Amino acid sequence: MKSLISLSILCIALLMHPPHTIHLKDSSCNTLSAEITPYVNGEVILKLKCSIMEDLLSEILSTHSLMKICRVDALENVYKVNLPDGVDPVEISKRWEENPFVEWAEPNYIYRIDTKPNDKAFSLQWALSRICAPDAWSIETGDPDVTIAVIDTGIDYDHPDLESNIWTNPREDLDGIDNDGNGYVDDIHGWDFVENDNDPFDDNGHGTHCAGIIGAVGNNEIGISGLCWRCKIMPIKCFNSLGYGDALNISRGIRYAVDNGADVISMSWGSTIPSNLIRDAIEEAHERGVILVAAAGNYNSTMKVYPAAYKDVIAVAATDKNDKRANFSEYGYWIDVSAPGVDIYSTLPNDNYGYGKGTSMACPFVASLAALIKSKYKDATNEQVESIINSAVDRVNSRVYIGTGRINASKALRLYPTTAKIYSPCAGDVVRGDIIAIIGTAERNYTLSYGKG
Q1: What domain count does the chain have?
Q2: Is residue 301 flagged as an active site residue?
Q3: What is the pLDDT of residue 49?
Q4: How remote is the C-alpha of 240 from its chain's centroid?
């Protein structure tokens, strides 16, 4: 989804580099958003300096007649006050603390656990902490009913850190018959469009690496943790052992994902040459409610890379450990958002693990975040999920545009699904003048940020 105002047979390379606004502090993983208060609405807890008759307490505090005061059991001189609608717990606590009879008063603050997994190599996964994944996991770790299709070089579906999260076709049996009538015989775990068979095993490593970022099993005491601990990963092999695939097979892979129930499609590949065939498949997928995410490319330029540059796709640039633009990442008005893409530790074929870098690694972080949001909000539309991802971000350190910011999973899971659209100007339009008309719609309150560009 483009968000900034301002092949016959085509070979497409993988994009792995060679061997509404919410008001939070940037990079803050433990701060609640403006949409969720850090305390129980309508409640204040206070402690008196000495015992007092309860019937005198209302008079001393000059409370409203609609307030309800209750002594807190087992705590000496501590009371809970239920406030009427419209009374701010913070402000009235400050006022009551000025009372000579009150030792302290405060809102009934909310605390939550910070969920860190026990995966042995979690400490090597700097990116998960950077995007506030441990805090996000206290809210949502993924729903097995949500499926992310990985269109890539295949996946090592037997990898011990992936196998329990690999999608299984519920309508197919391994019996040489196309039980579900989808045109693919025995497609138990997806399809290999390169060899046209039912074994989408990874003979390159790229697809398995992306799959681990998305959905390596979390908290299983081995290896790493994906951002989605429990969502299902659908292996769709459209790229050969050298990392190349053609537009025909890719378009078939996209349609296979859609027809077989994928909620999200992750595409860590691209070309500077647009394909009508792939574009049509992308448009159909988006119309059917699928969330599409793609790597922006590794040319260190503003050159558009497809499918990321299509309007229905979330284009993902790459950042490093310091939230700077990775020196290889694409940039420009057509980028939607950025995510970590340097020194990313993930799964590799044959039960291995290793590091990778590229917008190929940034893309699956965004795809898995989309799946987490979809897990929490089952009825959210693809446009609502896209809006959340693009809104719930932290600032990046970049002199060029790499989207609205670097994703923050914790913020994203604290936003309610809504949609804001700008119809005019369109992405890439050049506008001049002291007054610029901006036409759009929003379901809730939104802040529109703009600047010279």
Answers
A1: 2
A2: no
A3: 85
A4: 28
Runs of H (alpha helix) within 52-125: 54-61, 89-97
The strand pair at 191-192 and 147-152 is best described as: unpaired
Q: Are residues 104 and 122 in the same domain?
A: no
Q: Per the residue annotation, which of 206, 312, 323, 338 is the catalytic one?
A: 206
Q: What is the C-alpha separation between 332 and 211, in angstroms, rounded?
A: 27
Q: Six-digit token pair at 13? A: 């390379």
CATH of the domain at 365: 3.40.50.200
* 39-78 residue pLDDT tens: 888 999 999 888 776 667 777 676 666 678 888 887 888 9
Domain containing residue 255: 11-31+115-418
The answer on 350 and 209 residing in a single domain is yes
Q: Exactly one of 152, 156, 161, 263 is catalytic; name it.
A: 152
- The reply to whether 172 and 57 lie within a common domain is no
Residue owning tokens 């759009």: 440
Task: Kindly state whether residue 348 falls inside one of the protein's structural domains.
Answer: yes
Task: Enter the pTM of the model.
Answer: 0.81
3-state secondary structure of 440: strand
Q: Which of 3, 360, 375, 410 is catalytic?
A: 360
Residue 16 contacts residue 356 (beta carbons within 8 Å): yes
Token representation of residue 208: 């398995």
Q: Tell me: the pLDDT tens digits for 329-372?
A: 999 999 999 999 999 999 999 999 999 999 999 999 999 999 99
Q: pLDDT at residue 304 above 80? A: yes
* Residue 15 included in any domain: yes
> Known catalytic residue: 360?
yes
Both tokens assigned to 206:
């790229």
How would you classify the pairing of strands 393-394 and 406-407? antiparallel
Q: Helices 206-215 and 359-376: crossing angle, nearest 10°?
A: 30
Q: Hunting for tokens 């497409």 — which residue is that?
A: 12
Instruction: Average the pLDDT over each of 137-141, 224-228, 419-423, 447-451 and give the range with the smallest value.
Output: 447-451
What would the DSSP string read from start to end of 64-75?
Answer: -TT-EEEEPTTS
- Where does a domain end: 74, 109, 144? 109
Closest CA to 60 of 34, 99, 24: 99
Q: Could you tell me which of 71, 72, 66 has the C-alpha nearest to residue 42?
A: 66
Instruction: Give yes or no for residue 35 having a pLDDT over 50.
Output: no
Ranking 84-93, 251-260, 330-339, 397-406 by mean pLDDT, the lowest is 84-93
Residues in the chain: 453
pLDDT at 124: 97
pLDDT at position 6 over 70: no
Alpha helices, H only, 322-408: 359-376, 382-391
d(C-alpha 149, C-alpha 210), whole Å: 11
* 20 is known as an active-site residue: no
